[in-house]
């Protein structure tokens, strides 16, 4: 049986994943409309962050990795995504 805290965590993570997918999608649409390199980079940055959120859930739920390890994986992906976004904004 799943406890309440775990159920809430899964729900919140799924919502964050869905938001990440939507942001990445709309960012891609903006890039296609404008064709500007900074929008391409923003799409890539948002995509990397979204993949990190997805990987954390998959690695924890299905691969059985330790919670600390999956948080590290997610944090690295978020950091890389933020670096790409920073580069995009500095252009």
TrEMBL record:
Entry protein name: Uncharacterized protein
UniProt key word Transmembrane: yes
InterPro entries: DUF7521 (IPR055943)
Organism: Salinigranum rubrum
The entry's keywords: Membrane, Plasmid, Transmembrane, Transmembrane helix
Highest taxon above the source species: Archaea
Tagged with keyword Transmembrane helix: yes
Segments passing through the bilayer: 6-26, 38-55, 67-86
